[in-house]
């Protein structure tokens, strides 16, 4: 306690001081002859390399997560725009026979004041489900009979993007 040296353990949650300490230790050990080094030198060297690799992977994974998150936000926004366009087309096309819109995945109100109304899906899962059904139904129809807006390829790209990044 009353010596000239003050030894303290690094705080476990702080990574930088541990790396600094391990690097300084290895630097000092490398200056010594092999027979004067501690038995832990090579273990510390291996652990430092392993942790450094793991932190690099964590950083890469975090970057990919952020990019994926931004992509999902953009796809969510695009999916809402598409579903609104498709819904308007369905309401216009099937004003007299709204039940026909169910072929493209839309739900129809069955009772109440709004009976016979084509319902707009709510939430990502419901929107993706309807967009997917819409794309499959449109692909099955002859090209001349397909709805022109929005483009089928655009709808399929949003469905594929959300399915890949969310699931």
Task: List the keywords.
167 residues; two-stranded antiparallel ribbon
Task: Describe, in plain words, how this protein is organized in 3D.
The protein has a two-stranded antiparallel sheet. Helices cover 61% and strands 2% of the residues. The mean pLDDT is 81. The protein has 167 residues and is mainly alpha-helical. It contains four helices and two strands, in the order H-H-E-E-H-H.
How many helices in DSSP terms?
Answer: 4
What summary fits the major beta sheet? 2 strands, antiparallel
Q: Using the CA coordinates, give the radius of gyration.
A: 30 Å
- Indicate the low-confidence ranges by residue numbers: none
Quaternary structure state of the chains depicted: single chain
The termini sit apart by 58 Å
Structural class computed from helices and strand pairing: mainly alpha
Mean model confidence by pLDDT? 81
Run of helices and strands: HHEEHH
Task: Tell me the helix content.
Answer: 55-70%
Number-wise, the strands total: 2
Strand content: under 5%
| Overall spatial form | rod-shaped
| Order of strands, widest sheet | 1-2
Tell me briefly what this model is:
The chain has 167 residues and is an all-alpha fold. It has 4 helices and 2 strands. The model has no long low-confidence stretch (mean pLDDT 81).
């Amino acid at each position: 306690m009353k010596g000239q040296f003050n030894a303290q353990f690094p705080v476990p949650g702080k990574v930088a001081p541990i790396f600094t300490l391990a690097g300084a230790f290895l630097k000092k050990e490398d200056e010594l002859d092999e027979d004067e080094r501690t038995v832990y030198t090579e273990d510390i060297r291996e652990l430092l390399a392993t942790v450094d690799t793991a932190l690099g992977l964590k950083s890469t994974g975090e970057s990919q997560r952020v990019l994926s998150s931004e992509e999902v936000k953009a796809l969510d926004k695009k999916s809402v725009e598409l579903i609104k366009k498709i819904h308007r087309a369905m309401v216009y096309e099937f004003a007299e026979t709204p039940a026909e819109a169910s072929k493209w995945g839309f739900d129809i109100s069955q009772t109440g004041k709004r009976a016979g109304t084509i319902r707009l899906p709510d939430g990502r899962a419901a929107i993706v489900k309807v967009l997917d059904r819409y794309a499959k139904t449109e692909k099955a129809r002859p090209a001349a009979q397909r709805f022109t807006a929005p483009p089928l390829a655009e709808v399929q790209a949003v469905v594929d993007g959300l399915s890949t990044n969310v699931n």
